[in-house]
Amino acid sequence: MPTDPSRQGHRTPPLPDEQDVVARATAGDRGAFTRLMEHYQSACYGLAWRLLGDSELAADATQDAFVHAYDAIGRFRGGVFRSWLLRITANASYDILRRAQRRPTTTLPEPQEGQAELPDAGAPNPVAEAVRSELYRQLDLALLRLPNDQRTAVVLCDVYGMDYNEVAAATDSALGTVKSRIHRGRLRLRELLADHRELFER
Amino acid sequence: MQHPIHPDPERLAALAGGDPEATADGALTGHADTCTQCGEVLRELRLLRSALSELPDLVPSRPLQLVPPVPAETAADGGGPLGWLRRLAAPVMAAGAGLALVGAVGFGSVVLGGMAASAGARPDLAAEDRGGEAPEEASGEPANFDESGEPAPSDEAAVGGPDDPSDGEDAEDGEESAVALVDLATPTPWLVLTGAGALMLVGGLALRFVVQPRAG
User: What digits encode the pLDDT tens for the residues A11-54?
Assistant: First the structure.
């Protein structure tokens, strides 16, 4: 059963010298590649966990993504490195999801209510932090309750900022199908979170 | 304001996400601006979308290997003569195993054939021991002649008759050693083949496990 994951508290910002590190990694510098993967591993794992809903599968997908990224880094032709790496992670996760769906005996675990995270006592506003933390936890739980196709589309589009075309490419689906999944997923999430509206108003 | 007909909720969800087609739909945006019910749905969907876009990254549940080990090993294998030698191990072992197998099968068939031939020669010897005429073999050669056509060294003993049983035994032993000599001479190429195959197998194993690439 999946347990509530450990949240980093923020989105990973780009490295201060990211362009230089990416250029060295593209040229074959293993140290530079390692630094990039170390920096973005939480971003990749977060995406994989939200797509798969299981810590072990998410770790496997992230590991697969690093292997694919290592093979493909020489062909990286600029752009936002984080987006490039997240696309690879989405593909690796979606591969695992498809394999799991193809085997009827293998089902993804049901979401489990975890313990609410304790607020950071050192934060400027511990109450606000606690509310925010609970909001994130409820959002993640609600996402896991969506049907797989809607969850994948909403996570890629609304959580990780991919456009319709990128989601269609990552999920190997038609554009119209992707739009419909995203829109239905948003409506379903709103219903699932109806009892927690107060968390959104802060 | 209450409207008798509301748009499809999916259209509102598209509008909440800033879908260009929905944003350009004047009727939809106009309705959402004036309908309290749809306006509230749209507001909640926008709040939801905003919260989703802020979801933080997650700490991996276990330490991850940041650089794949496979390319590192491939690089070590591919670089320098040691890597080249290691890559030779598999084909050498396969070829060696094949040669050894072919040699063993060939050797086995020749030895079995020889044993069958010697078993077929015994009734002739027994007939000669009794002093009778030896029946001719299919080739027309008398049974007490070896393949070279020379008389077998047991000629004298063969005509000795049953009175001297020791002479008869000598004659039989002599014939058996002749057959054995023939058997050993014929399968020699098969033995060589088997030995060569075994040597290649051992050599391949040595390449695989003794020659190690440099770490890193």
Answer: 889 999 999 999 999 999 999 999 999 999 999 999 999 999 99
Across B9-18, average pLDDT: 95
Which backbone phi and psi does B5 adopt, to 5 degrees? -120, 125
Task: Identify all chain A residues contacting B48, using CB atoms and an 8 Å cutoff.
Answer: 186, 189-190, 193, 200
Q: CA B154, CA B168: separation in Å to the nearest integer?
A: 9
Q: Residue A164 in contact with residue B18, Cβ under 8 Å?
A: no
Nearest CA-CA distance, residue B60 and chain A, Å: 6
Is residue B148 very low, low, confident or very high in pLDDT (cuts 50, 70, 90)? very low
- The residue type found at B181 is L
User: In angstroms, rounded to a whole number, what is the distance separating the alpha carbons of residues A183 and A169?
Assistant: 18
How close B71 gets to chain A, by Cα (Å)?
Answer: 8
CB pairs under 8 A between A and B: 130
B70-97 pLDDT, tens per residue?
A: 554 555 555 555 666 777 778 888 888 8
Distance from CA of A105 to the nearest CA of B (A): 25
The secondary structure of chain A, three-state, reads: CCCCCCECCCCCCCCCCHHHHHHHHHCCCHHHHHHHHHHHHHHHHHHHHHHHCCHHHHHHHHHHHHHHHHHHHHHCCCCCHHHHHHHHHHHHHHHHHHHHHHCCCCCCCCCCCCCCCCCCCCCCCHHHHHHHHHHHHHHHHHHHHCCHHHHHHHHHHHHCCCCHHHHHHHHCCCHHHHHHHHHHHHHHHHHHCHHHHHHHCC
Residue B169 has pLDDT above 70, yes or no: no
Residue of A nearest to B62 (CA): A59
Q: Which two tokens stand for residue B70?
A: 């496979």
Q: Is the dihedral of CA B83, B84, B89, B90 positive or negative?
A: positive
The band of B118, judged by pLDDT with boundaries at 50, 70 and 90, is confident
**Chain B residues touching residue A189 (CB < 8 angstroms):** 48, 52
What was the pLDDT predicted at B68? 77
pLDDT band at A125 (very low <50, low <70, confident <90, very high): confident
Nearest CA in chain A to B70: A67
Percent of chain B's residues with pLDDT above 70: 56
